[in-house]
Amino acid sequence: MRLSNLVLNSCFVLILAFFIPSILDFILPKSYKSYHIDFSPVFDEFVLSSYQARPKKREYFIIKDQKNLSEDEYMASLPFDFYSVLIKNDNFPSEFDYFASDIALIRQNSQYFGLQYKNNLKSQTPLFALLESNPKNLKLQIPSHLIDISDDFVFINTATNEIDKDLSDKFKNALLDSGAKFNLKGFYSNPNLLKSFDEGAFVVDKDGQIFHILLKDNEPIVKNTQIICNNVVNIAVSEHFRKEFYGALVCGDEVSLISYDNYRQITLSKYLWDKENLLLKIDPLFKHLSLKSQEGINLITHNPDFSVYKQTKFDIPNEKIDFLKFILPFEISLKIDKFSRAYEFGVAKFNHFSLILSLILAVFVFYRQKDKFNAVFVAITGIYGFLILLCRREI
Hints:
single chain, about 400 residues, alpha+beta, 5-stranded antiparallel β-sheet, 10 helices
């Protein structure tokens, strides 16, 4: 009987260890700061902004000499981020007046490209979409086929759920003629109908060779990019009217851009793809690569040719007071395996500071029941075990 109670109570402990931390984290107020780094062409230095929600507070300063900036000074130091406000208030930096006189120069030479680390951890769906790149009336349409690359390269008609053998054979032969080796290991595209044009998809063959494919006038266009990567984590495709690069290739622990210039690979930086959010911000003068994790921010400012101009690293201070570590003995969370992309349960952390509370509760249980077994159970499982015994009226 005691063994069955132990098994049952242990199962309840695991359930509470999964749900209680998330509930408390949602309920308890958060007072930690968020940080953002930019490169200022006005100061020729990096500037940092911080935001605190409770109490509400914003701070701006130059990182190198820790000089504080007012909000107006901060905005004026980033003329290509806040050009609308600066021009309206006649506060645009005089050294860049030629941009203020023609805002189109700023818009035509600006671009934002982001990649969140969570997108690198997602497993690929078994079916993929390829848009028609030359649609009727120039309006992108929902594709009539989905592509299955698991055993072959086949187009499945979504209306009839049948294989379109003619279109499948056309694409497979085009890939084989371009040097592809089956089976394919990956398919990466941006099937978003809200974009202004479509650049197709990138596929990876079994040897890591990357090919660019398009569906144009219902005919295949396949190009061998000559890029080889045996450890493709992600290819984030993002169409933009500047047409400088197709998107970002995350290969192993490196991130690079696939250029419109004959698929030239532009290496950007080392990249912790399972921890860091990536943001590439392009303005008329520089190209800024930000890699941000919970531990810090790494900002690299490039010249227009992607050579490094300046870089800095900022370690985010741990200002968040984690009250939960004094209460919860351990936490169980749902994680994504870095390599298999499978979801799995795991112990997120052991909180040694909660040992004091666990011992106090164990002494209380022993005092109430004179039961060593339940006291040891609470000493090990902490507040979780205590709540279970309390709910089951064993205390």
